[in-house]
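Example with several molecule types.
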Amino acid sequence: MSLVEIENLHVSFRTDEGTANVINGVDLEVEPGEVVCILGESGSGKSVTLRALMQLLPKRRTTISGRIRVAEHDILSLDERKMADLRGPTVAMIFQEPMTAFDPVFTVGTQIVETIKRHEKISEREAEARALELFERVRIPSPKARLKNYPFEMSGGMRQRAMIALALSCRPSLLLADEPTTALDATVQIQILLLLRELQQELGMAIMFVTHDIGVAVEVGDRIAVMYAGRFVEMGSTREVFSRPAHPYTKGLMASTVHGDMKGQRMKAIDGSPPDLTRLLPGCAFEPRCGERIPVCRQVVPAIRTAGPGHTAACVHVGAPAKELA
Amino acid sequence: MLAYIIRRILYVIPISLGVTIIAFALVHIAPGDPLNAVVGADAPAEVVEKLKRDYGFDQPLPFQYARWLGRALTGDLGNSVVNNQPVAASLAIAVPNTLMLAITATLIGFVLGACLGGLAGYFQGTWIDKIATGFGVTGVSVPHYWLGIVLVIIFAVEFNVLPAMGMGPGGSAGWEWNWTHLRHLVLPAITLSVIPCGIITRTVRATVAEILSQEFVQALHAKGLLHGRVMLHIIKNAAPTVLAVMGLQLGYLLGGSILVETVFNWPGTGYLLNDAIFRRDIPTLQGTILVLAMFFVVLNLAVDILQTAVDPRMRRS
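Resulting structure tokens for the full complex:
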């Protein structure tokens, strides 16, 4: 039994410019203890997928259909109270900007303690002891004093460590990480990634890690799922996807990555810009920017096809059909 | 924190000095001769000269100011030119009356405004928001002396359930804590509370809506907190702004209730001020303006210190 099962997920927002179809049929399974990286550019629907998993999207403007199961709970049919019970002990989230994700007028320690006490019947002192232990675990120096800090009194890296401590405070089986290193310096980024990886192995939890940085995805992911315009266009083990990218979009992303020996050359970018989600065309969403497009790409959304062992891609140029899209 | 408070208290000294200069000068900038109030226009010149000397109006202004300030520091605000009573004594009677009215009105306005604004902000865009916002806009827009008169017509004249004038039965000035006296507080307090209520409604609504749009609220939900606890976070975040606005409103009400105190014949500072203006009673005017302005200074100090206590980020700056 998978820890996470997402079937044919559709999410749309009502905006002033019309309905934005942000997620357009997403299927994903995550096994316990597995790290899945969702890779994609801004607006591709990565964060929305994570938020849909926790029912954190604004209810009045959002329409969700499909099925989401997390630890055998049917997320979309849960009422508000039951969903809140799951947030923390079953599924927790790390946000991109810990400065804005902590309440500025409460100490970090208080914010961790209130979370523990919300979910477990333990005393204030026990909760405080747990918070201290968490701070030690995420290697915050002089943890006892730091618990009494307000978020603005910490550095960016330390705040993100505190955020991780908060997310782990109720020992979740699934951790959702929404670009947790994007707002950090490069050196701090690597420390945080290593810490997350280490804690993940120690605690045996699964992580869904959203990023737009291929380097980060390769560093942490067991599997990579590449997202474009609200669909997964390619999915497979990190090694497979990285060494044999099948979808033109993934290939484009890889080609546009900057590394040291490219000095003096022009950077290769993918031409064009992501589609307007309020006016999606019937065919493949990447077709207008694709160097390998053929007439059929404009007509139907390509089915998901097998590109290798445990490796699929939604492109007409890729090997054999894996399954028909609903 | 302590250093900040001390520094903040020290600021009060130059501010107060500025306040005394303005309180003193304003009255002298206004046209008209204060002696007109004491003697008729056709009084003999030597009588006018003598009176000028007696009141010190013949001295240069800076000298008059220094003498007035020196006396004010000892609590002597001079004597009224109308009835020769010490101004400080009249204020000692009027200030508590105004305080009672203003604090009651602020409390009504604050409780009502905070509830309405909180609901409007939390349920932004719904019919609850529209009703609360409509109420707030009306509160800010209605002229309160007009509302006072309307309330008097309805509750005192038509239904005869509440008294229209004064602080007690038979126009008595003495206050007692019983229903006969409290009844007199109802209409003026409600009238006076309408503007702060509207302003606080709008402030709270905007503050709550702004806080709700911040990511940390989503993060609070993401760790499973229930609505009550999330509300606590929102209140603590909104408190500094709302406190500041409420303190300012109380300040305005202390000085700005001239119209309402006049409509309801409430013997407070506004009433005193109104009377002093019409009679060109310069010492009373100066004294009252000074005391009201000092209230404002002290209130601002209190609000600043309270804000620092609630918001840790302010202790730094």
